[in-house]
């Protein structure tokens, strides 16, 4: 029988719990650490321990950590394996077990617990990590021709230019194990990276010298959606039981069938499914849509939801209809934060959706017109001034115009756009200087009036200050 994602997660955590790991709940997507924008990996909550800045509370831990990676936003719906929001399963050793255990347990989990045939797996090691190579070949029994040595760019982890660092070893699933071709793990038609084992064994100093750490650590990560793709034998992460129910809910609203959808529509379904998970979890973890930092990530993701919803023919607000499905799935996964704040999540997202729908309605016609004119004149470049007008008058962020442009095979004269922006800022500054002068004048006036016994001007004054 096929494993559900909840069974896959539970099997992982139980496996390591049985090997004396402390099972911990997922931490928030918003890290305690002010230097990190979002939780991008299972190790983030343990960073202080790994960095030697906090004492360990236990020698081993295991988690299923919710993660957000905005650097993969353009891969969403394009590759079969990338999300912005995903769950990373992990086992961690804090100065406890090291390479032999980490490697052998990972293998045991995949081949015995998940029952993936060993000949369908292949592994990578860091190019000079003979120790890991030997463990894989001699202790686990992976044939040498299925172990690939990879460069530092790929298989060496460091949290920064100095500090703890070390080689990695990855485990890949092979979709074509009978192929005569030598393995080439970078080929993502044939292979999918499942599990990454990081061996933190060095300390790097300011000169780049590596000193072996006395206390070596293990940090690992395995994408739940990817394992589910493999074990549930579906074409991509989106068709697993983690995301497909969300896509089905969207398909009902769009009155379309995912199965019979065009390639472009399937991409839109995947974007909507992925991003709705991301924004629901982000809002539940306390992030509000805004123009800066984390808030801007929510805004940007939700705008893409709205746009791809429209590409699916959904003209009206629909997020509120889908969030309950997202919430229910998360709850079954043991992530209850959306469920606990469902009203807040729906209200925040719906308000933002409504706002952006209005923006889109105003700007889309203008952009269509611009594209139409360019097509007539045989140009594929949108003038910086036009992109700027869309930004300034219609509230279209540059990346939105860029995205729509790219879908239609157009580019934007970004350099010219930037110059329009700079010019705009210069004008705004001049206007602000003038406004400050006005406020000052009002303040003087209001003081004079209040001395004369009226309080109404105080309010007027305060409003002006807020707006300036
Ligand atoms: P890839 O090379 O496929 O982009 P990665 O090397 O960037 O993956 P790691 O940083 O090693 O990934 O993260 C550990 C594991 O987390 C990966 O092996 C993978 O299973 C999972 N993972 C990483 N990024 C994503 C993502 N964007 N969506 C889903 N799962 C991911
Ligand atoms: Mg990656
Ligand atoms: Mg990788
Ligand atoms: Mg990796």
From TrEMBL:
Q: Where in the cell is it found?
A: Mitochondrion; Cytoplasm
Q: Can you give the residue ranges of the Alanyl-transfer RNA synthetases family profile domain? A: 3-468
Record's function text: Catalyzes the attachment of alanine to tRNA(Ala) in a two-step reaction: alanine is first activated by ATP to form Ala-AMP and then transferred to the acceptor end of tRNA(Ala). Also edits incorrectly charged tRNA(Ala) via its editing domain.
- Entry note about domains: Consists of three domains; the N-terminal catalytic domain, the editing domain and the C-terminal C-Ala domain. The editing domain removes incorrectly charged amino acids, while the C-Ala domain, along with tRNA(Ala), serves as a bridge to cooperatively bring together the editing and aminoacylation centers thus stimulating deacylation of misacylated tRNAs.
What quaternary arrangement does the UniProt entry report? Monomer.
Its family remark reads:
Belongs to the class-II aminoacyl-tRNA synthetase family. Alax-L subfamily.
**What is this protein's name?**
Alanine--tRNA ligase
**Organism name:** Gracilariopsis chorda
């Amino acid at each position: 029988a096929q494993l559900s994602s909840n069974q896959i997660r539970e099997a992982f955590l139980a496996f390591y719990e049985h090997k004396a790991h402390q099972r911990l709940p997922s931490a928030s997507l918003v890290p305690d650490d002010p230097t990190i924008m979002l939780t991008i990996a299972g190790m983030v909550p343990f960073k202080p321990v790994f960095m030697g800045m906090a004492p360990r509370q236990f020698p081993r831990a295991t988690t299923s950590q919710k993660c957000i990676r905005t650097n993969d936003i353009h891969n969403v719906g394009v590759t079969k394996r990338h999300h912005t929001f995903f769950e990373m399963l992990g086992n961690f050793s804090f100065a406890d077990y090291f390479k032999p255990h980490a490697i052998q347990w990972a293998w045991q989990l995949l081949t015995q617990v998940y029952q993936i045939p060993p000949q369908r797996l292949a592994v990578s090691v860091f190019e000079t990590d003979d120790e890991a190579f030997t463990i894989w070949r001699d202790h686990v029994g992976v044939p040498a021709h299925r172990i690939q040595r990879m460069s530092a760019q790929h298989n060496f982890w460091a949290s920064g230019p100095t500090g703890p660092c070390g080689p990695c070893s990855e485990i890949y699933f092979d979709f074509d194990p009978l192929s005569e071709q030598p393995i080439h793990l970078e080929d993502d038609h044939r292979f999918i990276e499942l599990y990454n084992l990081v061996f933190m064994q060095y300390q790097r100093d300011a000169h780049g010298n590596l000193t072996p750490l006395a206390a070596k650590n293990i940090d690992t990560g395995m994408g739940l959606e990817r394992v589910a793709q493999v074990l549930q034998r579906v074409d991509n992460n989106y068709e697993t039981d983690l995301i497909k129910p969300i896509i089905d809910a969207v398909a009902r609203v769009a009155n379309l069938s995912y199965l019979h959808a065009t390639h472009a529509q399937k991409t839109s379904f995947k974007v909507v499914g992925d991003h709705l998970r991301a924004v629901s979890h982000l809002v539940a973890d306390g992030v509000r849509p805004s123009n800066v930092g984390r808030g801007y990530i929510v805004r940007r993701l939700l705008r893409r939801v709205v746009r791809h919803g429209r590409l699916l023919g959904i003209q009206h607000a629909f997020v509120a209809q889908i969030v309950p499905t997202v919430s229910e799935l998360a709850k079954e996964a043991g992530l209850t934060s959306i469920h606990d704040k469902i009203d807040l999540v729906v209200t925040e997202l719906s308000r933002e959706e409504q706002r952006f729908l209005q923006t889109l309605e105003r700007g889309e016609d203008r952009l269509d017109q611009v594209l139409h004119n360019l097509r007539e004149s045989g140009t594929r470049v949108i003038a910086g001034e036009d992109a700027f007008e869309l930004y300034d008058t219609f509230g279209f962020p540059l990346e939105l115009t860029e995205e729509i442009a790219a879908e239609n095979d157009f580019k934007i004269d970004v350099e010219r756009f930037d110059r329009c922006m700079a010019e705009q800022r210069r004008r705004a500054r001049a206007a602000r200087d003038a406004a400050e002068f006005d406020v000052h004048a009002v303040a003087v006036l209001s003081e004079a009036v209040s001395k004369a016994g009226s309080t109404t001007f105080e309010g007027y004054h305060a409003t002006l200050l807020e707006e300036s």
